[in-house]
Amino acid sequence: MPARLTTVVVLALALATVGAIPAEAARPSASAATLTAAADASEGVDTKAPWFCHNLDCPRFSVLESTDDYELREYEAASWVSTDVSAYAYALAARTGFQRLYQYIDGANKEAVKVPMTAPVVTRIGAAAGPFCKNNFTIAFFVPFAFQSKGAPQPNNPDVYLSYTPALKVYVAQTGGFVVDDYSISRMANRLTDALDDAGLAYASGEFFFAGYDPPFRLAARHNEVAVLAGEAADSQPAQ
Question: Does the chain have fewer CB atoms within 10 Å around its N or its C terminus?
Answer without folding.
Answer: C
